[in-house]
């Protein structure tokens, strides 16, 4: 028996509607801030993502990379930002700054499937290019806040922020951190020992139990910020305060790659166990340049749709459904024509033309139809239809020309 591939799952109608609601809500809210929709291919040349650096977990062990028939190395996108930066450069958009983009779609990572994170998962996200001031960081966070509020889940999350400083801050902190970690190297996990050489900041994000104990006493990043970086972070906090956006400062919150700087932020929830991060982002002023573009500042975030859906409660307003039950071959001809008339008038119709009458009424109940139109020999003879109110159990026969008036009254009641 065929099964879905491990780490993938089907979006059945109910879950699909949840995803669609999240996407539409996020796109509508982000549009209020000037973000325009963009979509990139789900696969890119591998160099688009491997430029992130071989020390990134995404590159070193999580990407789906393969050689196509033309001998090109191709990677299914593991995240959205690098692909959008590639689109920014290759489409010659770097002279049109500032630019704001909203995106959504599937991402792919060969990782252990977790709650709310499959190997094919879905994200929404925004990217802002060309704004170097702290206002860009605040705008990005404010957009996220308003989207979470519109989804009725803001009160289920907490915002955590930190500063990664500028290049000078990072260089100072890296030296101090390496010195500290080398004194504890023998107790680090194998993975963290590798990171100590290649990318020590990633150790601060380790999930290993012993690593966490060591990290708990490590030097704090914010103690090594330059005066410029301190002032930048202070302006971010001041603006968040003015917008009455509540936040917590998490001095251990980092982004391990060298092009990240200044503000890093994450929204966490207590409702998903250890997988509590539902939305995260930060400033990445060095990314465009690292991908052979000009020096353009950027900031953005991404959120997992699956995780958002897990902590959301939606009451979808279902459009009224009309069930049509034809009795006999001649009635089917008239029923098909009638169904098309109703659909042309934007009325949802389900044709129930197989099974016993009893089974068809059970089907009408299952799909939550509010009214059934019954057409049989008698109705054909008299050019009429029988309308059955499925909630009240009442029915009446009306001339065909009165049917739309009766339906309208019923559907609006």
TrEMBL record:
Gene Ontology molecular function terms on file: ATP binding; histidine-tRNA ligase activity
Stretches assigned to coiled coil: none
Subcellular location(s) per record: Cytoplasm
GO cellular component: cytoplasm
Assigned keywords, A-Z: Aminoacyl-tRNA synthetase, ATP-binding, Cytoplasm, Ligase, Nucleotide-binding, Protein biosynthesis
Catalytic activity line of the entry: tRNA(His) + L-histidine + ATP = L-histidyl-tRNA(His) + AMP + diphosphate + H(+)
EC number: 6.1.1.21
Top EC class, one word: ligase
Swiss-Prot/TrEMBL GO biological process terms: histidyl-tRNA aminoacylation
Pfam families, per the entry: HGTP_anticodon, tRNA-synt_His
CDD domains: HisRS-like_core, HisRS_anticodon
Domain Aminoacyl-transfer RNA synthetases class-II family profile: 1-326
Record text on subunit structure and interactions: Homodimer.
Sequence similarity: Belongs to the class-II aminoacyl-tRNA synthetase family.
Name of the protein in its database record: Histidine--tRNA ligase
Organism: Candidatus Nucleicultrix amoebiphila FS5
Lineage summary: Bacteria, Pseudomonadati, Pseudomonadota, Alphaproteobacteria, Holosporales
């Amino acid at each position: 028996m065929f099964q879905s591939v491990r780490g993938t799952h089907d979006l059945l109608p109910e879950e699909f509607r949840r995803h669609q609601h999240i996407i539409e809500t996020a796109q509508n809210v982000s549009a209020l801030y000037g973000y325009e929709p963009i979509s990139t291919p789900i696969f890119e040349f591998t160099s688009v993502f491997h430029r992130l650096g071989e020390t990134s977990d995404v590159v070193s062990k999580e990407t789906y990379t393969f050689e196509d028939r033309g001998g090109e190395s191709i990677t299914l996108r593991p995240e959205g930002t690098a692909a959008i930066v590639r689109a920014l450069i290759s489409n010659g958009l770097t002279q049109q700054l500032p630019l704001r983009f909203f995106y959504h779609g599937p991402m792919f990572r060969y990782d252990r499937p977790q709650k709310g994170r499959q190997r094919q998962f879905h994200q929404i996200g925004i990217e802002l290019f060309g704004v170097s001031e702290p206002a860009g960081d605040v705008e990005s966070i404010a957009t996220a806040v308003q989207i979470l509020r519109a989804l009725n889940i803001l009160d289920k999350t907490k915002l955590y922020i930190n500063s990664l400083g500028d290049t000078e801050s990072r260089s100072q902190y890296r030296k101090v951190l390496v010195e500290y970690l080398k004194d504890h190297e023998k107790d680090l996990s194998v993975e963290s020992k590798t990171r100590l050489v290649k990318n020590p900041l990633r150790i601060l994000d380790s999930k290993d139990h012993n690593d966490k104990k060591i990290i708990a006493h490590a030097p704090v990043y914010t103690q090594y910020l330059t005066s410029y970086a301190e002032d930048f972070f202070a302006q971010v906090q001041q603006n968040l305060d003015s917008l009455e956006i509540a936040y917590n400062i998490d001095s251990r919150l980092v982004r391990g790659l060298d092009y990240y700087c200044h503000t890093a932020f994450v929204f966490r929830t207590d409702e998903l166990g250890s997988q509590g991060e539902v939305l995260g982002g930060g400033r990445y002023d060095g990314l465009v340049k690292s991908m052979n573009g000009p020096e353009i500042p950027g900031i953005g975030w991404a959120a997992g749709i699956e995780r958002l859906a897990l902590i959301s409660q939606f009451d979808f307003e279902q459009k009224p459904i009309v069930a049509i039950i034809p009795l006999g071959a001649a009635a089917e001809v008239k029923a098909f024509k009638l169904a098309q008339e109703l659909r042309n008038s934007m009325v949802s119709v389900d044709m129930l033309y197989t099974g016993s009458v009893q089974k068809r009424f059970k089907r009408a109940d299952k799909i939550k139809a509010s009214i059934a139109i019954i057409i049989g020999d008698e109705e054909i003879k008299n050019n009429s239809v029988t309308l059955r109110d499925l909630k009240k159990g009442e029915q009446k026969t009306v001339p065909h020309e009165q049917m739309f008036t009766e339906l309208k009254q019923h559907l609006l009641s």
